[in-house]
Amino acid sequence: MTISRRNFVKISGAAMALPLMGSSAFAQVEKIKIGFIYVGSINDNGYNYAHNQGRLYVEEKLGDKVETVFVENVPEGPDCERVIRELAQQGCNLIFATSFGFGDSLVKVAPQFPDVAFEHATGYMSGPNIGLYNARFYEGRAVCGTIAGHLSVTGKAGYIGSFPIPEVVMGINALALSGRRINPAFTVKPVYISTWNDPAKEADAARAMIDQGIDIIAQHTDGPAALQVAAERGIVGGFGQGADMSAFAPETQLTAIIDHWGPHYLASAEAVLAGTWAPGNTWEGLKEDVVQMGPYNAKVPADVVADAEKIKAGQIDGSFHIFTGPINDNTGAERVAAGVTMTDAELLSMDWYVEGVEQPA
Amino acid sequence: MQFRLEKRREPSKLMSYATPVAAVLLTMVLGAVIFSVIGYDGIGAVREIFLTPLTNSYKWQDLGVKAAPLIIIGVGLSIAYRANVWNIGAEGQYIVGGLAGTGIALLTWGMTGWWILPLMVLAGMLGGMAYASIPALLKTRLNVNEILTSLMLTYASVQLIYYLIRAPWKDPMGMGFPQTRLFSEAARLPTIIPGTIVHLGVPIAVLVGLVAWFIMSKSVFGYRMRVVGAAPHAARYGGFSENRTIWLAMLVSGGLAGLAGVLEVAGPFQRMVPGFPTNYGFTAIIVAFLGRLNPLGVIVAGVVLAITFVGGEVAQTTIGLPNAATGIFQAMMLFFLLAGDILIKYRLRRVMPQATAGTA
Predict the structure, then answer these.
(1) Domain ranges of chain A
(2) Hey, are the CB atoms on A101 and B275 less than 8 Å from each other?
(3) Minimal CA separation from A295 to chain B, in Å
(4) Would you call A36 an interface residue with chain B, using a CB distance cutoff of 8 Å?
């Protein structure tokens, strides 16, 4: 084809229209390339391990139709921005940023790649090509808290948190509320260590709290360090977080909250393949199998297991919600009236602690 | 055939330039061997880590942004180390500099004016200097080792960030996340090349290197720092006060670390977050030594280290190299450099067996 003036106008017109088309609808693709960004190591046996299991799940289900890449140990700051651009430039059609602190970077980079679908785990800033996804971890906490309320001798649990964000606060509150349903004197002592993954800090926090009389430990950090300390010190027990950690503390892990991201990742990948992806905002839990409970330890008595299973079943069929009033905060003021259930919006901006939670420093 | 180390009459100039280059090359060769042996594509690893960031023009902006803080801090450290003042706490001074700049940005939030950024930069430098003056004071008054105090103060500064962003400086719109609000436009470092992320801090870093080189090689101040470091007795005899040198070295290195901190928070971060400390202050120690404690060398070394960071990420996505590989390559580089330094003062001489028979 010679480039006549008329053709030139046609071609350049099409070229100009291309970016517009790209931003208005996502085209169908034959083969999908997915990028994953992890804040920690895939060998942390917890949160990042679970996301990586989700990646492997997609690979297994989609076979040759998918190629995946991942970058681990990405700091929550400008370094993440570079990694996102790198993945987008390498031709990823779908990118999962799996930690809260990646949000700023995603919001900056996503508009530069309107044809790429981005999804941000546990975040709150969406965009024309940024979807949000999260899991109702607090449902698992309610099961853990039920066991803790039954088994704790001192009536005190310790909770290692990363940052005081709603996601973490919600988990602490769910543990306290469910524990106090069983034992009204049950209390939770949170400690924030300002990192998602630092086994030394997690272990130090666990030791300090055990010295102060807690005999149950829960954590919202990414690895099994706290459980290992609990095992070493022989306290009643603790819970796996993100993945089944029983291999690290077989006597001590009472049960575990398992993040099962695979089905969500598969659904998003299939949507991109079909050209139907749109930025969503999903928040799934036990019912959708995105949150699973690990095996109960043999030392958990049968009646306690039955009670835990009841809480689990209630959350699956919708008959039980841990954030149903009456709920008082830790200053004694009523926050949720009897019979009222907190809305998702209220949960996602939770910045107060329920009765029985010691105010953290 | 045997070898013997023999002291040179004069330190070798050639070797002092050759060893950094040799260290980088040896790292590439040994790195390729090690990663091949443990089952990765070793040659690919070296190619992705050391060459891809250079050959892919899209990566140049990342190199500039990553190298800028390393160069600025590294230049300051090179001046201090020349004077035998071992400031190991540049990370802490970088943090306090960033915090001081953040303070100004929050105080002037919502305001406009050209003066806000310069004021932030000034505050950042003063913050870094103030934080470096603690070990300087302890050293000159009580003779406390500055390596220890400057290092430990780094950990204190990290806690200072956590305190400030959890309570007084917390973003009212941040859903409870411990971070400050996003700086307003006037407190953000402008991008100098449209369409890229290259900010004003990049040319500033190069300028800092050039100015420092000029001062160190052409001025009395530079002469004093070099003499005190190389020959403390002669310096004392010549009337150079040791305490004054310590103060100068700490203030210069602290001020530059603070400058890097404020440029980083006003540029790439645009708000203070818990992830602000990313070990630039520690990595800059490698940069200072790899650059032979010469500001011009530091500029090159800063780029080399930036290449390994950027390339390390490329290697993760293209050949599945674990993230720890980047650290291994950087550590090997420093190791070979320090090991190679022996060749500056000593020479390797081949000796015949009969020659050593008497001494063996």
Answers:
(1) 22-135+261-284, 137-251+291-347
(2) yes
(3) 31
(4) no
Q: Which domain holds residue B196?
A: 63-290
Cα dihedral sign, B182-B185-B189-B192: positive
Interface touch A78/B271, C-beta < 8 Å: no
The domain total for chain B is 1
Sequence-separated (6 or more) residues with CB below 8 Å from residue A99 = A37, A38, A39, A74, A76, A121, A122, A196
Q: Is residue B252 part of a domain?
A: yes
The reply to whether residue A73 touches residue B314, judged by beta carbons under 8 angstroms, is no
Per DSSP, the residues of B205-239 read HHHHHHHHHHHHHHSHHHHHHHHHHH-HHHHHHTT
- Looking at residue B1, what is its pLDDT? 63
- DSSP SS3 for A95: strand
- 3-state class of A328 per DSSP? strand
Distance of CA B74 to the CA centre of its chain: 4
Considering only alpha carbons, which residue of chain A is nearest residue B62?
A82
Instruction: Please give the ipTM for the structure prediction.
Output: 0.76
Give contacts of B 52-91 with A, CB under 8 A. Answer: 58, 62, 65-66
**Contact map slice: B 104-123 vs A, CB within 8 A:** none
CA B295 centroid distance within chain: 11
Q: B313 vs A169: CB contact, 8 Å cut-off?
A: no
**A137-251+291-347 shares the fold of A22-135+261-284:** yes
B176 CB within 8 Å of a chain A CB: yes
Distance CA A34, CA A142 (A): 33
B258 part of a folded domain: yes
Q: Does B181 touch chain A (CB under 8 A)?
A: no
Q: Which of B319, B331, B301 is nearest to B49 (CA)?
A: B319
Q: Would you call the peptide bond into A326 cis, given omega within 30 degrees of 0 as the criterion?
A: yes
Chain A residues with beta carbon closer than 8 angstroms to that of B70: none
Please provide the size of chain A in residues: 361
Which member of B177, B309, B323 has the closest CB to residue A163?
B177
Which fold, A22-135+261-284? Rossmann fold (3.40.50)
- Establish if B352 belongs to a structural domain: no
A196 vs chain B: nearest CA distance in angstroms? 11
Among A101, A165, A195, the residue with its CB nearest the CB of B175 is: A165
In order along its 361 residues, chain A shows pLDDT tens digits of 444 444 444 444 444 444 444 444 577 888 999 999 999 999 888 899 999 999 999 999 999 999 999 999 898 888 899 899 989 988 999 999 999 889 989 999 999 999 999 999 988 889 999 999 999 999 999 999 999 999 999 999 999 999 888 889 999 999 999 999 999 999 999 999 988 888 999 999 999 999 999 999 999 998 899 999 999 999 999 999 999 999 999 999 999 999 999 999 999 999 999 999 999 999 999 999 999 999 999 999 999 999 999 999 999 999 999 999 899 999 999 999 999 999 998 998 898 999 999 998 7
Q: CATH: 3.40.630.30, 3.30.1240.10, 2.40.10.270, 3.40.50.2300. Which one for A137-251+291-347? A: 3.40.50.2300
Which residue of B lies nearest to A169 if distances are taken between CA atoms?
Answer: B176
Any domain includes B198: yes
Smallest CA–CA distance, residue B177 to chain A, in Å, is 5
Q: Is B278 an interface residue toward A (CB < 8 Å)?
A: yes
